[in-house]
Amino acid sequence: MILYKTDAEVELMKQSAVLVSKTLTEVAKILKPGITTFQLDKLCFQFIRDHKAIPSFLNYRGYPYTICASVNDVVVHGFPNNTALKDGDVVSIDMGVILNGWHGDHAYTFLIGEANNDVLQLLRVTKESLYKGIEKAIAGNRVGDIAFAIQEHTERKYGYGVVRELVGHGLGRSLHEDPQVPNYGKRGNGARLKENAVLAIEPMINMGTKDVYTEDDGWTVRTRDGKPSAHFEHDVCVKKNKALILSDYSIIEAAEKNNPNLNTSYAQKTSALTV
Ligand code: MF3
Ligand code: CO
């Protein structure tokens, strides 16, 4: 059952989403070769606690960290670790908070230093596909319309692999609410959306095969072919004519641009993309 929010609740959820954006902005400021994802995890934990919120991933179904840090062929749910990040790494950071009882949950993929054109295109297209999905998050549409738009832009247009095993979701007082929001599917299928449904839309797109496997730690999801994967996630509120994006990429993107260790050459086209 989809739990629709009041306007006041949507306003509170915006605060939760923006706290995640602010935390991701802190990550964007300090990312550089040599830093470890374990350091990022500690920083994010402290930043969230300092803002009177609770890291929602920590202890969720036994998940042991504040952030998911998924590098290169890790698709999602990577454990932070003590490996130094290096030039060319594709680093996806996903995290959630609970603020005033409401969840924020979103993700961004960064690129350290130099990268080849294939990687640049993967990041650009994955971020574009998120906005293509968000364009369909309007009252009267169905979940399948969002799914189709994402799959169309990534799999059919570029031949990328859309991960099937993991999906976006409703968001509210719980991290995962109805409906599930897959990144593949048919137009006109699935639950019909009404105003003030809040969704976490999160394309997970592989450069190669769509097939993934989970490591023995029970969490780390990797691509079968070892090729890189990208993940962008926004929290959005369904509205009549145009979805309201609750999370805020603009502050993350500004920090990304100001950080000489991050590669933003993929971002030129997408930074202007809003709905
Ligand atoms: N970001 C993931 C999602 O959107 C949740 C990660 S699971 C956790 O569903 F255990 F890490 F919290
Ligand atoms: Co999510």
What does this protein structure show overall?
The protein has 275 residues and is of the alpha+beta class. The chain has helices at 7-30, 37-50, 117-135, 143-158, 249-258, and strands at 54-55, 67-71, 74-76, 90-99, 102-111, 161-162, 168-170, 177-181, 198-201, 204-206, 212-214, 221-223, 229-231, 234-237, 244-245. Helix 1 crosses helix 2 (37-50) and helix 3 (117-135) packs antiparallel against helix 4. It binds 2-amino-4-trifluoromethylsulfanyl-butyric acid and cobalt (II) ion (CO). Residues 57, 60-61, 63, 68, 77, 94, 105, 169, 200, 202 line the site of 2-amino-4-trifluoromethylsulfanyl-butyric acid.
Could you say how many structural domains there are in total? 1
What's the rounded overall pLDDT mean?
96
CATH superfamily heading: Creatinase/methionine aminopeptidase superfamily
Note the run of SSEs as H and E: HHEEEEEHHEEEEEEEEEEH
- Strand line-up of the largest beta sheet: 8-7-9-14-15
For the termini, the CA-CA separation is: 27 Å
Query: What is the highest CATH level, the class?
Result: Alpha Beta
The major beta sheet can be summarized as:
5 strands, antiparallel
